[in-house]
Amino acid sequence: MIASVSGTVLTARLDHVVVEVGGVGMLVHTTPATASGLRVGQQARLSTSLVVREDSLTLYGFGDDDERALFEQVQTVSGVGPKVALAILSVHAPDVARAAISGGDIVALTKVPGIGKKGAERIVLELRDKVGALPGAATSAGVAPTAGGTQPQVVEALVGLGWSAKQAEDAVGRVLKAGEAPGTTSEMLRAALRELGR
């Protein structure tokens, strides 16, 4: 189990980063909020979870241990894999996700790509008594994007989560037309995901 990685950020995209560890570039899948807080050339430390499959070893990274713990916990639910677990953390901050699960907020959970009504009910049923918002738990905050750099990144992330390019572009367009003007890339992604969940 690789519990964390520390090193120089070589690449930072919306849904993954590459961190150089001992001369080896490790690709780490992250939430947009975590990725947006990292800059190429800077030192970074990410809490990580290694998902082992027959044909792959995939590393997922988080801003703190609390986020990683929730990522691993939701995967104990039947039918919830790492992609859906990461999507939960992309749409909701850890405390918000915990509150939705413990409060049985099916509507909030079905806003996550890959979770339907039955899946949300199963998550609530299996985890309601096991999760709880941790007092003072840190949440990741994004950094304001450069002008014009947000929209393509958000479309790319939505396509990576399973939507078509057209669906992704339409959702981003609706967010911009609604005048929500999210301040960060991760906020825009969350707003677009809310649009797609309607």
Automatic annotation (TrEMBL):
Q: Which InterPro entries match?
A: DNA_helicase_Holl-junc_RuvA_I (IPR013849), Hlx-hairpin-Hlx_DNA-bd_motif (IPR003583), NA-bd_OB-fold (IPR012340), RuvA (IPR000085), RuvA_2-like (IPR010994), RuvA_C (IPR011114), RuvA_C_sf (IPR036267)
Q: Can you give the residue ranges of the Helix-hairpin-helix DNA-binding motif class domain?
A: 72-91, 107-126
Could you name the Gene Ontology cellular component terms for this entry?
A: cytoplasm; Holliday junction helicase complex; Holliday junction resolvase complex
- Major localization listed first in the record, in broad terms: cytoplasm
The record's SUPFAM superfamilies line, in alphabetical order, gives: DNA helicase RuvA subunit, C-terminal domain, Nucleic acid-binding proteins, RuvA domain 2-like
Q: Where in the cell is it found?
A: Cytoplasm
Spell out the family assignment given in the record's similarity comment.
Belongs to the RuvA family.
Q: What does this protein do?
A: The RuvA-RuvB-RuvC complex processes Holliday junction (HJ) DNA during genetic recombination and DNA repair, while the RuvA-RuvB complex plays an important role in the rescue of blocked DNA replication forks via replication fork reversal (RFR). RuvA specifically binds to HJ cruciform DNA, conferring on it an open structure. The RuvB hexamer acts as an ATP-dependent pump, pulling dsDNA into and through the RuvAB complex. HJ branch migration allows RuvC to scan DNA until it finds its consensus sequence, where it cleaves and resolves the cruciform DNA.
Q: What is known of its domains?
A: Has three domains with a flexible linker between the domains II and III and assumes an 'L' shape. Domain III is highly mobile and contacts RuvB.
**Annotated protein name in UniProt:** Holliday junction branch migration complex subunit RuvA
